[in-house]
Specification:
Length: about 450
């Protein structure tokens, strides 16, 4: 039997204990509580080694920190690519940049000179100091920046200068339009008919907007003698825009109320407000399906009658007892620009019902060919200032391209009624009889005589 050799000076007792500890270590031997406390007291503190951070994680965190904040105030957008492609002329300024989106270095240098001339005249006539106006604009900087969806990479000084110069340019443009005596002989905008047309075009673009509250705040500084009867900026805006977009025709119930905060965001939003239905209008919305309406020609073949109506809203299209009533729609050189920008605003903004988008989609479905336009012009529903009816049908087919909808569907009930009417055999037979056999009293008499003779 093998016996381990005992070291000199070591008893068998100590040897067995020591040897036993060595044999039982990790095999079920548990030290006492006292031994644990002693061991923990004498042991060196544990060193925790942190794992090196992933370089990509650090990079992502930096990008997150640099991401601009999103605000509910956002309402001035860059037009999405699906609308812009092939239609750049309807969304990009021709002669003047207003706001930061198109104010890149060297853009429209001649117009920058005109802006400064307008600024000088505005301050002089109203006895205002540049420091006073600039100080006011600086107090609005944070709020004004939040109106633009894209991040504005301008310093505080650059942003304040841009907003002040552009806002006063727009104000002076509006005031001179209303009070022509302020237009001097050297005015390079109002003395040049082609130029003012292009400037008006640029003022209506969604990418070319100044926050409405900035314009309104600066207008409050204008001397009352210069305002005449237009004491409130909302009145001046109405007078300025109605020339181009014909918003006056909807009657007094659409007129702006002086001294009331309408919550208007910018000029495009101001125009849209005029087309909206009144809050007390009862309307049946569709929440699940969309119905494509028949064309105007198909509706006429089914015996639908057409009539125009003077109504409170351009959206107020009604169909009752076989008669489709549509408010008069004037088509001119401004129509496509105005409605394309209204649609772009609606498609980008958080509107529960996209009224203008749905209206243009509806009209685009009903107006397929120049024959459809002929019928609507015949019934005085469309008043066209364009060259031909082919141009009108092309315009309506282009305006609604790329439009998307959210629920609910404003024209669901109308389209459902029109489709049901056209699918009814009785309505179609009645229309054929009326058109082919009973369109004149004499022809009706001959048909009855022929029927009598055959009996």
């Amino acid at each position: 039997m093998f016996t381990p050799k005992r070291e000199k000076g070591t008893s068998y007792f100590h040897e067995e204990i020591g040897h036993g500890n060595w044999l039982l270590d990790g095999a079920g031997f548990s030290p006492t509580q006292e031994e644990e406390e002693t061991s923990s007291t004498n042991a060196a503190p544990a060193v925790i080694v942190e794992k090196p951070r992933d370089e990509v994680a650090i990079l992502i965190e930096g990008k997150v920190r640099d991401t601009p904040s999103f605000w509910p105030d956002c309402c001035i957008y860059k037009v999405p690519h699906r609308f812009r492609r092939g239609n750049e002329g309807f969304y990009e300024p021709r002669v003047v940049s207003i706001g930061p989106y198109h104010s890149h270095q060297g853009s429209f240098p001649q117009m920058q000179i005109f802006k400064l001339k307008y600024l000088e005249a505005f301050l002089s006539r109203n006895k205002l100091s540049l420091d006073q106006c600039l100080g006011l604009v600086r107090t609005w900087e944070a709020k004004a920046r939040r109106f633009y969806v894209d991040r504005i990479d301008l310093s505080s000084n650059e942003f304040a200068e841009l907003i002040l110069v552009d806002a006063i340019f727009v104000l002076e443009l509006m005031i001179r339009r209303q009070f022509f005596e302020y237009v001097d002989d050297c005015d390079r905008i109002y003395r040049k008919p082609r130029m003012i047309e292009d400037v008006f075009h640029d003022v209506l673009l969604i990418e070319n907007q100044i926050p409405f509250f900035v314009l309104e705040g600066l207008y409050d500084l204008v001397d009352n003698s210069s305002k005449r009867t237009l004491k409130f900026f909302v009145e001046l805006t109405h007078e300025f825009l109605k020339v181009s977009v014909k918003i006056d025709k909807f009657g007094a119930d659409r007129a702006p109320v002086p001294g009331v905060n309408h919550g208007v965001k910018h000029f495009v939003d101001f125009i849209r407000c005029y087309y909206l239905p009144l809050e007390d209008e009862k309307h049946e919305y569709g929440h699940r399906v969309y119905e494509i309406p028949p064309s105007v020609t198909a509706l006429e073949d089914a015996g639908v009658k057409f009539a125009t109506t003077s109504t409170r809203s351009l959206l107020d299209i009604q169909f009752n007892r076989g008669c489709l009533k549509i408010p008069n729609f004037r088509v001119d050189d401004w129509t496509e620009t105005v409605f394309k920008n209204l649609i772009a605003f609606e498609q980008c903004h958080d509107h529960q019902v996209k009224y203008i988008s749905e209206l243009m989609f509806l009209m685009g479905c009903m107006i397929k060919t120049s024959k459809d336009v002929d019928l609507l012009i015949e019934h005085e529903i469309i008043s066209s200032m364009l060259g031909s009816n082919v141009d009108v049908s092309t315009l309506f087919n282009h305006i609604g391209q790329g439009v998307g909808f959210c629920q609910p569907n404003y024209y669901f009930s109308l389209c459902k009624k029109l489709n049901a009417y056209c699918k009814s055999p009785w309505h179609r037979w009645k229309a054929i009889l009326k058109r082919d056999y009973f369109n004149t009293p004499w022809k009706c008499f001959l048909q009855l005589l022929q029927l009598y003779s055959s009996c």
